[in-house]
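Table 4 source record.
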Amino acid sequence: MGTIEFKRISIIFLMIIAFALSGCNKQPPVPEDKEEFIGVWQSPSGFQIEIMPEGYANIYQPMDSLHPEFDVLGIKKANAVYNFGFELEFSGDSIISIKKLYHSGRQYKIDVNPYFDADTMKMVMNGVVLRKYNEDHFMAEM
């Protein structure tokens, strides 16, 4: 068996292992009992969290680190306005955790689950009232 053929077999073997392992880390979708959280939620300062059915979240934080909501809601990362592809996890009834490899993560406390205030869906997260918008609103001008 030549060196080239051995390398080819090794590469194929590694690709098969990588493919097999890639299915092991599939992000679970948002649980059925938490589907009311799916959508774009915005605070008065413009902070947005987009919760997707596939179990991921995107963050848009246009406020600077001096804004009072930054410490309460923001992801601590220098000059990070847009943060995409966080894995989302619900812990019990009151915690949403977001994490991403090589990025800062965050836990959010759900003070009040999604509810209707007249015709507007709202929730309270880390003491801040967030309003629900449709998916097209993510990163939209205020």
